[in-house]
Write a structure and sequence with these properties.
With about 375 residues, this protein is mainly beta. The protein is about 10% helix and about 35% strand. The strands form five sheets. A seven-stranded mixed beta sheet has the order 2-5-15-1-8-9-10.
Length: about 375
């Protein structure tokens, strides 16, 4: 990665790349990032590090975070993510690197921005590099030079931006990197755009680790699929232009909608009806072209039933949306209704007649086992909250 001569210069470098192979440091501790951000409490939807105590990162020692941070005003929503008083910051060692490995909660996979954006946000006090550092296996690197220039290393080179708003080196700043689902990256300082449309080195769509190297300070580290500067800073908060949210599913629908506002797929002045919202939510069809109804046509029903026992049936449901076989999870669950004779109404059966989790369709089909009442011979499937 960086040699000792360059690391000896005072510098602060953020890198998002592979943990294994960064200067041979392969023992960084996993920092768990939630798969979903719009959960309650909202702080449960992000990996956060206050550095009030030393995290178990590679090469991070217990005394690394004992330096007091100069009091600095947070971004407007900082207290939402980092409530309470914090006084300590990560002190960068100057001649070594700090590395953590990012994994989804449970360690099941690396953090991906192939489907939803990932935000990496922190407060930093930069010190200057006199020359471009070696970034090793990093996919993206941000550093500054003494001339108040911000440099971002990416797949096709280094983009440089003269920073005229405030001194980059003597004050604390908010650094935000948004890694987008189209594989591009955007960099902000103090919520002001520095550069965008950058491709990570190698065209990666996963964030596997963060590396801090050189000198300087960092604090209030945040990694999440949710925008740390989301206007309302509460789950389920959506712009006032959207009305008529179905009352029976208000919390779930608005949480889902907030994700679309969060990453720009839905305009803040979108105007959708309650019926459109409810249907789009259950089928997980993003209202990309709002106010146009995102669900123009739907075909759903039971395509196959296998009665394993008088009280256990295996049901395959078929779903097409807008003429296309559904090939990913929906937000709704599957409920099976039944009756004993051709005539009469379908009955809601036992709780086991509803899938415990949201349905996942592959090639337009989803198959589940349902516990039913003995004697049921005729069935109907529904998609429910």
């Amino acid at each position: 990665m960086c040699n000792k001569k360059r690391l000896g210069q005072t510098a602060a470098l953020l890198m998002a790349g592979m943990a294994v192979g960064l200067a041979g440091y392969a023992f960084a501790a996993d920092s768990e990032v939630p798969v979903n951000w719009n959960v309650s409490p909202i702080t449960g939807g992000a990996y956060r590090e206050t550095f009030e105590t030393a995290p178990t990162w590679d090469r991070l020692v217990d005394t690394a975070s004992t330096n007091s941070r100069v009091t600095v005003e947070r971004r407007s929503l900082g207290a939402t993510w980092f409530p309470g008083a914090t006084t300590k910051a990560l002190t960068l060692p100057g001649n070594a690197s700090y590395t953590n490995t990012l994994k989804y909660t449970g360690g099941s996979a690396n953090v991906s921005f192939a489907t939803n954006p990932v935000f990496v946000d922190m407060r930093v006090q930069f010190t200057a590099y006199e020359g471009a550092p070696s970034i090793g296996d990093a996919k993206l690197a941000v550093f500054v030079s003494a001339a108040d220039k911000i440099h971002v290393v990416h797949d096709t080179g280094t983009t440089t931006n003269m920073w005229a708003n405030a001194d980059l080196l003597s004050a604390w700043h908010q650094l935000t990197v948004r890694m987008e689902k189209n594989g591009k990256c955007v960099v902000y300082i103090d919520d002001t755009l520095v550069t965008n449309n950058l491709t990570p080195v190698g065209g990666a769509t996963e964030l596997t680790s963060l590396v801090f190297t050189g000198g300087g300070y960092a604090d209030d580290l945040y990694v999440s699929h949710g925008n740390p500067n989301y206007p309302a800073a509460t789950p389920g908060a959506i712009p006032s232009g959207v009305s008529g949210v179905p009352s029976e599913t208000a919390g779930s629908v608005t949480n889902w909608l907030a994700n679309y506002f969060n990453d720009g797929r839905l305009a803040a002045n979108a105007d959708l009806t309650g019926i459109q919202l409810g249907r789009a939510y259950l089928l997980n069809m993003g209202p990309v072209n709002a106010p146009t109804d995102p669900v123009s046509s739907t075909t759903f029903g039971v395509s196959d039933i296998d009665m394993v026992t008088p009280t256990l049936v295996k049901v395959t449901c078929k779903l097409t949306v807008n003429g296309t076989d559904r090939d990913e999870p929906i937000n709704g669950k599957l409920r099976l209704l039944g009756k004993t004779t051709v005539g009469g109404d379908f009955d809601t059966m036992t709780p086991d007649a509803v899938t415990p989790q949201s349905a996942d369709f592959t090639g337009g089909e989803a198959t589940y086992d349902f516990t039913v009442e003995s004697g049921m011979k005729f069935f109907k499937a529904q998609i429910v909250e």
